[in-house]
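Aim 2, interim progress: modelling of the acetyl coenzyme *A-bound target.
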Amino acid sequence: MQVYEGLAGIPVVKSSISYVDGENGILEYRGIPIQELVENSNFLELSYLLIFGKIPDENELLKFELDIKENLKYFERILDIVKSLPENLHPMKILQSLVPVFAFDDIDTDIMKEENKYRQTVRIMALVPVVIAFSKRLKEGKEIVFPDKNFYYTENFLYMLNGKSVEKIYWQTLDKTLILHAEHTINASTFTAMVVVSTLADLYACVSSAIGSLSGRLHGGANEEVYKMLSSLPNDEKIIREYIENKLKNKDKIMGFGHRIYKTYDPRAKIMKYLLENLQKEKPTPLLKKAEIFEKIALEYLEEKKIYTNIDFYSGVLYSQMGIPSDFFTTIFAMARVPGWIAHCIEYVRNNKLFRPTQVYDGGHNIHYKDIKSL
Ligand code: ACO
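Predicted structure of the complex, ligand included:
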């Protein structure tokens, strides 16, 4: 029996949610190119498209938005729980711990019931941004800002996070980055969510597990690592080149580069960089220049192995420009990926088959127990 390491190239599901052509750098959600969605859609409409398979009409979108806003009423309960957690807990751990608690007094969470899927979806979408914003305010010792239902989703998030309303360019840019991050076929965290839903666990359990999976630095956690790496380096080509050469010599991975599927420039990274340059006109950051120098040098070494810049390279620089602290970057990725995870869980459970892979056993047999005292 052959072992398929990392399940690379092994299809585990038939899905119509998104499509990636890694050779040509194409990404589509429900058949629509990512570029068109970033330009014309917004995160809530896009979430509806991913989860329900169609672009909503005005009434459907309004209802979806109102149902999400209705769940903001739980914010005081969220605040009490976040306050009770250890002060220095990483924001991804806080988020992962909180999502199962969103069930609150749900007696029936059976994932096979349509009404439960919907209730869990809108509640998770409503409360994930609340947890992130409250955790950040508490960590900084600042006053908590409660959600304001008059604001659009991303606008409200940045309002709670920063303690004041922000200019449109900021929340619209953030909204577009959420579209970029919302879905990406069967990546590690989505697969985690699918494994959990295949046991018929509810969406709270699926999303919480997916957040844990996303937190690792080979996946969503890379954006925080890229930021740390860029911040630790001076704006000096020679030193940056030495850093990259050392990393490669030691066979270390350079964060923000490489992808299991893309063997060309990640189309999301291109758009992320464009959004960043656009924001730069409002508020310049020296980090962008450094990132560009780093990228140019890194690609001199990596391109021949078909290793290119991925989405996480520029996202941290962009989030830092919005005043988001680096240890919160991956929580923004998680907030964005919620509709992708949920869409896959709902699709998978329709023709559910419990995930239960097998192994090639390479241990011994008939080895007899030895009492610890005899060793
Ligand atoms: N820096 C240096 N070398 C790399 C990198 C990198 N970022 N990525 C791959 N390689 C090299 C490996 O060293 C290996 O070289 P070898 O054949 O000489 O031993 C070869 O490319 C294949 O590497 P694998 O790790 O087997 O490739 P895989 O497809 O498993 O890697 C991954 C994908 C995990 C994303 C990898 O590129 C990586 O670790 N990148 C850095 C972390 C990162 O940015 N993660 C975010 C990914 S995007 C996302 O999750 C949203």
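The beta strands are 18-21, 26-29, 32-33. The longest strand covers residues 18-21.
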